[in-house]
Amino acid sequence: MISAQVLEEARLLGETLSNSPSNYIIHVFDAQSNTKIMNSAIKEIERICPNKAVMVISSDLISKKLTVLCQVPKVLVSHGLKANEWVTHISKTMDGKGGGKESSAQAVGSRIDTLEEVIRLADIFASTKLTNN
User: Fold this and answer.
1) In 3D, which of 59, 68, 25 has the Cα closest to residue 44?
2) Tens-digit pLDDT profile for residues 30-75
3) Residue in 61, 78, 71, 72 with CA at minimum distance from that of residue 113
4) What is the CATH number assigned to the segment(s) 2-132?
């Protein structure tokens, strides 16, 4: 049930933002930090918006976990936005660890109360990287 809702939300988000001038999308899904569902959401958005970087965030109040997954297309990696650096930039704020490759990365933290700050920092980081390069 959650999976279908998240996929539909991802599809609508991708369709809504496909013509947006922004090169990246940051979105919070109610996926209870389920990485399989979150990854499916990223793939759905990428299918519709293949040249946009995507960061998806989800929290799980029961396990007190904040999970972040991101994908960055090669064209944006070459402009300076790297997925592993993007998650590393926000990991400390959420009292977590992150890592991965230039094109895909993830982070998990225990500070679910930092969600708004994580979004703000992720937005500033992506905007700065893509504006300066």
Assistant:
1) 25
2) 999 899 999 999 999 999 999 999 999 999 999 999 999 999 999 9
3) 61
4) 3.10.310.40
Measured between alpha carbons, how far apart are the two ends of the chain, in Å? 41
Q: Where are the domains of the chain?
A: 2-132
Neighbours of 41 (CB within 10 A): 27
92 DSSP β-pair partners: none
What are the structure tokens assigned to 97, written together? Answer: 């660890």
Q: Which amino acid is at 15?
A: E
**pLDDT over 90 (residue 133):** no
Q: Determine the number of helices (DSSP H) and then strands (DSSP E) in the chain.
A: 5, 5
